[in-house]
Structure formats: C-alpha cells, structure tokens
Amino acid sequence: MELFVVLTSFLALAIGTLAIGQPASLTFSETAGVLKLGGTGSSPTIVIDAKDWAGVTRTANDLANDFGLVTGTKGKVSSSTSGLGDVPVVIAGTVGNSPLIDSLISAGKFDVSAIKGKWESFMSQLVSNPIDGITSALVLAGSDKRGTIYALYDISEQIGVSPWYWWADVPPKKKTAIYALNSTKTQGPPSVKYRGIFINDEQPALTNWVSSNYGGKYDSRFHAKVFELLLRLRANYFWPAMWNSKFYVDDSKDGPLAGEMGIVMGTSHTEPMARADKEKVKPWDWKSNQSNLKKYMQEGATRAKNWETLWTMGMRGDGDTGSPTLDATQLVDVMNYQQSVLKSTIGTVDPSKAPQMWCVYKEVGGYYQKGMKVPEEITILWSDDNSGNVQRLPIAVETSRVGNSGVYYHFDYVGDPRNYKWINTIQLSKTWQQMHLAHQKNATQIWIVNVGDLKPLEIPISHFLDMAYDMSKFMTADSTDPWLKAWATREFGSEVATGTVEAMATYGKLIVRRKYELLNLTPFLYSTTNYDEAANVLGEWESLQNKTQTLYDALDADTQVAFFEMVLHPIMAGRIVQQVYINAARNKAYAAQKRMSANKLADDVKAAYAQDAVIQKRYHSLLNGKWNHMMDQIHFGYNNWQDPASNSMPSVSTIGTTAPSGGILGISVQGSTASTPGDAAPALLALDPYTPENRSIELYARGSGTVDYTITPSAPYITVTPSTGTLSYPSGTSDIRALISVDWSSAPNGSSTASISIKPKTGGTETKLSLPLNNVHVPGDYKGYVESNGAVAIETSHYTSLVSGGSSSRVEVIPNYGRTDSGITFMPVTAGTQTVSSAPKAMYSFYAFSSVSSAKVSVYMPPSFNVDPGNPFKYAIALDDATPTTVAPVPSSTLGAMPSDWKDSVQNGARISTTTLGKVEPGAHKLTVSLLEPGTTIHRILVDLGGVKSSYLGPPESSKVGM
Ligand SMILES: *[C@@H]1O[C@H](CO)[C@@H](O)[C@H](O)[C@H]1NC(C)=O
Ligand SMILES: *[C@@H]1O[C@H](CO)[C@@H](O)[C@H](O)[C@H]1NC(C)=O
Ligand SMILES: *[C@@H]1O[C@H](CO)[C@@H](O)[C@H](O)[C@H]1NC(C)=O
Ligand SMILES: *[C@@H]1O[C@H](CO)[C@@H](O)[C@H](O)[C@H]1NC(C)=O
C-alpha cells in the first residue's frame, strides 16, 4: 500500500527552504538576483523602527540570534539605517506603525496593498536602494503587529530553526550561505482568526517540571517560552494553566508580557472576564452573591483592559461544574452584565475591538438548545466531547452571527470515560476530519485546543495550528500524510521523513483503538482465541517500534534527542504498556490451558512493567534532566475516570509444573480455548485458498520435562511445518506453532475433511484434529474480495469503483484513518445533504461461497456526533440491486448530553452499526455504500455470512483477487 501518495501542496517546500506549507522566500545556493543575507562569518542587520511595537523588536532579536544558531554568526538589530556599511540588511516593520516601512511605501518602493488592513498578514520582497547607502534589502512588512512578527519568524523557520528548537530540542540546521530570493511573497490572513492552546490538567507532569525550573509558579519566564513557541507556530491565543494557578496574580508581569509579545490572552471556558478559577469569590453563585460576582468581573476587566484580551463570557458553577442555581435567563443576564462592563471599561463590545466568547460546554448546551439568546457579538465556542469528537457546528441560522463561532478541542483530558494525560494519543487524520469539517462549516473565529502538559503533544499541536493558520493546504482528505512529511523533514531531515510518516500514521491507528488508561477494562479487548488477535496486535507494535528504532539509529546524536521526544518515545512507551496488558491477558488464557509458557508470559509482563520505568527514566535524563518530571503521569491500573494513586501491574498467574493426566504435550487451535489431550480435541477452523490468516496448531509443554512429537497429515497435499520437534520446560523450547499449508492443485475440489494427527514419540496418546478444507475458486475474470469462513472483511479504501454524486460530491479516501487501515468520507463537505440517488458512492465486489438466508453487514465508523442535528450523518447500503437501507448511525441526543452509545464508542474508537443485508447466494455480489451527509465517514465494512467470530477489530481483511 502506498502510504505516501504524493502530495500536492507540501512537496514544493521540501525542496527549497522549510516553512511548512508556505512559499519560500529564501534559498541556500546563489542564483540570479538573490541577496546574500548571511553565512559563515556574515549575518544581517535587522532594522526595526524604534516606534514599532516592542514585540516586533523582540522577535527581531530572536531572528538575529537564530542566524547565529545556523551560521555561527549572530545577526544584529538596529533602529537606524545609517552606518550599516555593506552588511546584509533586513528591514522589517508594521504598516502604519513603522515610519521606516511607511516611508518606503510612500516613496513607491514597496506596494503593500495586498495586505493593508488585513489581519495578521505580511509581505516580503527584495527592494533595491530602499534607503540612501543601502543597495538592496529584504523588506518585511506586516499588516499589523503579529503580521510582522510572523514575517520575522517565517525567516527563522526557513533558515532552519524549528519552532520546536527549545521545547522539543530540534537542532538548528547548519547553513554556510543564506540568500533572499528576488520574489514577492504574501502570506495571510490566517484561516482561523484566534488560534491557540490551553495548558490544562497540568498536574503532575508540567507542574512538577515548572516547580523545579521556575520555583513553583507558572511565571512570566515560563510564559515567555510558551508565547515564543506559539508565535513561531503562528498562533496568537492562550488559555493559561488554571488547575492551581492564577495567571494575573502569580506574576504581575504575565499580562503585560502577553501584551508586549503579541499574545491574545484568554481564560478557560469556566473562567469569565479574565479571572482565574482560583480567584473566584465564594459562594460562586449569581443568585445569592450577585453584587460580589459583579465586582469580581469588573475587576477582571479593569485589570486586563490594557492588552489584547479575548473575553470569556457567561459562567458555570464552581470548579468547572454546572451551577445548581443558574438558568438560561440568568445566564443571559450574566452576559448582558459582562457586556455592560466591557462597554464601560473599554468602550465597546464590537468583536473587532473586544472579542468575546461563550463556550457551549456540558450543561450550558442544554440552555442554548432551549433557545437561549446569546448576544450576537459573542463568539459561540462549540466544544468537542473531550475526546476529539466535535458535538455541534454552526447551522444555517447561526452562520451570520457577528461574533461567528469556533471550536474548543481536546488532545488531553481529565474526566469520563478516563483521563488521558500521559503521552500523545492523537490520530492526526481524525483531527483533520473534525477540524476540516469545522472550517468548512465556518466555525473559524476561534480554535483552541486543550494540550495538557504541552510537551508530549508537539505533533498534534503543530498539526492543529498549521490547519488553523492555512486550511487551504488541507482541503483534500489525503492531506495529513503530506503535512506530516513536511513536518518531519523540517524537524529531522528528509532522510527519515517518509519513515516518520509511516511510523506516526501507524501509531495513530494503533492508539485510536483504545487509550492506554482504558486497556484494563474487562473483558480484555483483544481476543486471545480468535484470529490470533491479541498476539497480532502486539506484533504490530513490535514491528512499529523496530522500524522506528531503525530511523532513530540513522540520525545524528543531536537530532536523536528530538526524534526520541516526539516519535520514538511514544512508540516505545506505548508498546510497553500494550505488552504488559496483552501478555497479561495471554498469560491468563495460557494458564487455563496449563500451558507452561504462561509462566514465561508472567515473567514477560513483570519485565515489561519494569521497562516502563526505564523508559520514563530515559526521558527524564535527556539533556541532563531538562525534561525531568514531564513523564510523571500515572498510566497503569486505572479503575475509574480519575488517576489511581500509583501505577500498578495487572495480575498474572503462574502454574505448577506437574503435567496433567493427559500428558506433557498440549495442543490447541485457533478459535478454541481447549487444551487436548484432556479437553476433547477441537476441530481446526476450515481452510480455503483465500483464507487471509495463517492456519496453525499450537503445541506446548504442560509440565516440566521433555517430549518429542511428530505431526502427520492425512493427505499428501497437506504440509505442516515443522512436522517434528521437541518441546521442553523449563529449559528449551516450550511452545511451537506449526503452520498448515495446502497444495490446492492436488486437493479434492469442493468440501472435504482431512485430519492431522499429533503423536508424542514415546508414550502418550495420539491426537487427531479434523481439518475441513474448501477447495473453491472464483471465476478467472473475477475482481474483488473473496469470502473465507463465512466472512468478508473490507477495508473501505479498497473499493472496486467510485461514483460521484450531485453538487460535485464525491467519495474520498482518508488514508491511515480509523483502527485498521483507512476510511472513506464525503467531500466536499459543502456539497450538502444528498438523497440515495444523488449521493456519492463506493462499490465493493465480493464473491460468496456460502448461501445465507439473512446476512448481516457491520459498518465501522468514528465515534462522531451529528454536528448538524437537523441533518444527521447518514449512509445507505445495498446488496446488488436491492433497495438500499438508509442508516443514521448516531443516536440522537440533545446538546450538552451525549448520544446513548457514547461511552462505548469513545472507548472503542469506533461506532459499529449492524444492519441486515438479506439473502446471499454463492457467486459474485456488489455492495454499494452511499454517503448521504457531509461528514459521514466509514472505516471498515464487515459482511457476516455466518462465520464471524468475536474479536475487537473484526476478522483480518479478506483476500482480494484481481485488484
Ligand atoms: C528583482 O527583479 C525585478 C524584476 O523582476 C528587477 O527589476 C529587480 O532589479 C530585481 N532586483 C534585484 C535586487 O535583482
Ligand atoms: C459573597 O462573596 C463574598 C466574597 O467571597 C463573601 O465575603 C460574602 O460572604 C458572600 N456573600 C454572600 C451573601 O454569600
Ligand atoms: C461560510 O462563509 C463563506 C464566506 O463568508 C460563505 O460563502 C459560506 O456560505 C458560509 N458557509 C456556511 C455553511 O454558512
Ligand atoms: C523486533 O526486533 C527484535 C529485536 O531485534 C526482534 O527480536 C523481533 O522479532 C522484531 N519484531 C518484529 C515484529 O519485527
């Protein structure tokens, strides 16, 4: 499978300089018309008018420093254009705020009409003789303060300083020469107006780290680092830590610093009027303590009026819970009061001067649903379900609101079904699917994401903010991997970029199956009996880790640190947790079979559990302990939503070494828990030429001692490998998996039953396992999936054909999406609701050998919400020419409540909807899936012709022929 379908918009960048997704204005080799900006022994002077914003000068100093990081020669910052001699010159400034830039404009040397008056936009261009005595300069002009700041950091990124150079230790890329191209570059305005992060649930990891680095408080030194990161990532908005912090109180320099640097300060959804939760007056009750609450809100406005603030409006109850006394009418009173405060304090509620938001989170959604009138100027911030599924997006009547709307999203959460705060558990393609939909439905005023401790979420944060900055690079369903490739190229270099895409795309699929904290739910998710599921999943993790280790090994020592933090660590640490739980489940299953390797699995679980601490220590020891505490989060042994007090290993069983009366040699087969002799000999599962999984026999020691065995098939066309061997315990080989293969050209046609006998060489009884064979064949010209053992498992990206629908609607594949492979979705999402006949369709051919009077089909989807309740997600499915069955899979729910299947589908990373398909006769069939509503997305389809066995992910994908 081509994971890395070649990209459109991102590829270009990988060649020249690297500013992800944005055009290049620099180059590293001399070509006609370029201006040398720096190199070994030389660097530019960056001229900033003294009247420009302080934050612009501050950024220019960062850029001057960044030249030093890549060339060894630091640049200089000057407020004067005189006396520069013949050093390279960069002139940067804000239109209307920099007399220097304004003079170039009025002299006709720089035309900024493309950006003038726009939000956060900039232009860059080479200008000849900008000022007397300067032959040529690179001129950067911002439409506003952040426009200029982004222009300067854009140069940093292009010369080779990653936004993550400090927070994730990405080494600056050394350069011997840097040139500015003689081209004009225009960038902005961003797709989403306010784009930011929320540092939240920051205990224990980040808080412990802050304690040891900043003396216990989230102070202005800490915030300067965060703000710089945000600006380098082209973000502009921040909700500060609130678990036990008070941004404005803890350090009085915090607010002015945000103002100077150019960060728009917000507070979380539950902290109105720029005040921290920990400052709340008690009782926090509008009804009984209104005058004090009003005073408190007024003080917040007065305190924060001197810098850019995005005001959080409304209120919830104390401690981020519902208020028992508040109702929808009073909530509107609260908002009206808050707006009156803004009017009297800053003179306006016009959102271009006083942006405001109200977050539809939990119970307040119910008020809104009942028709609450939210003042027009207030941006409605729609929330996800805390698990990455956006609950609601603007519908037609809401898109014309002055304040528009936005999305509050989560990459980290404390709450139901269980906290996920440890390491990165985000599938990027899923974030794309949700945020692309939000963007297309015009929820574009604010995007804010809860990033927990910030640190282990570098990749999802970059992805989210890059989409928010320029969604035009993410308009197709396959845009995630090209973005990841451009990102990996910037951070680690092009040699490992493709491998990093493969690693993170695979990681996304493995992790979306279930969060680490939920792996100990009972019964264990992965089947230890059917489809070798548990062992195969562990194999996927192992193979992912091995490949990622190979990438790591190829990197230089400096880059290895960054790669470890962002890519290798989550894969290693995640694999260990999987190994602990999967092998604990296998241990129990083996112990029940008296399989001595249960004891080895018990040891393996203990060793893996101990390894978890070793990996944590490795992370904490990086760079002499720079990130000590960042991995303090408990991640084993949850039994409710909240963290347990400490990690704990799942229990394991050990068994005694006395063999059962049936003898040392034990035999088991797929699909059965029996251990024979002792239990009745199970039949092997049927085998046919299209069976996608290996068919095997497990032979193992059931006590201490040694046993030689021979395996003899009943017919010459059956081979079993190995056919003889020795099992012994405690030393030697205690378990053998013997693989069965059949030469179908010699086997009898149609159904037959062979057998395989297994005999200990000396003593003991012979075991005979029957082996049903189905020597069946599809016609030579058939193309499509083929049934085996009563199941057809389809990965939706492997369609036979696609048909476009009305309004240019079509089916697009979302690569590396969902739990097993990829997904399909309805694009463009602006095409609107379709009928079964006008809908875009995907067709899947399958060939059945079974005859079934009532087959069932299960459709696997993400756990999404109906973001437009009046037009729920829908698909229709039909077998051959039958009338399609239309399914609206998401149970309806009111805003603020969850659909009835929410917990299961969120825990499982999938919602499975099963419908009856009708009668299926042997022969070729066609399954047609119509996507009726934008946003409808499907991962996988399973046709049950009577043979599907229970498992978590479903049977492995069926064999395909001719495709
Ligand atoms: C840049 O290109 C323009 C025309 O494309 C030309 O007039 C100008 O002289 C060039 N500037 C430099 C510094 O080469
Ligand atoms: C209202 O809040 C203030 C400040 O916390 C408190 O001192 C006062 O007792 C409260 N008033 C009432 C009526 O509860
Ligand atoms: C979104 O905004 C664009 C531009 O203002 C407009 O053309 C489009 O109709 C809006 N879409 C929706 C779904 O309201
Ligand atoms: C991973 O590497 C280890 C150590 O080299 C090896 O034993 C194991 O078989 C590999 N596993 C997979 C699935 O590639």
Report what the structure shows:
The structure is a single chain. With 963 residues, the chain is an alpha/beta fold. The chain folds into 5 domains: 176 residues, Chitobiase/beta-hexosaminidase domain 2-like (Chitobiase, domain 2); 283 residues, TIM Barrel (Alpha-Beta Barrel), CATH 3.20.20.520; 113 residues, Methane Monooxygenase Hydroxylase, Chain G, domain 1 (Up-down Bundle), CATH 1.20.58; 103 residues, Immunoglobulins (Immunoglobulin-like), CATH 2.60.40.10; 178 residues, Jelly Rolls (Sandwich). 28% of the residues lie in helices and 23% in strands. The chain is built from 19 helices and 39 strands. The chain has an 8-stranded parallel β-sheet with strand order 12-11-10-17-16-15-14-13. α6 packs parallel to α8 and α9 packs parallel to α10. The chain starts with 10 loop residues before the first helix and ends with a strand. The N terminus is likely disordered. The site of one 2-acetamido-2-deoxy-beta-D-glucopyranose has 6 residues, from loops. The site of one 2-acetamido-2-deoxy-beta-D-glucopyranose (NAG) has 4 residues, from α16. This is Glycoside hydrolase family 115 protein. GO terms for molecular function: hydrolase activity. Keywords: Hydrolase, Signal. It holds the Pfam family Glyco_hydro_115. It comes from Lophiostoma macrostomum CBS 122681.
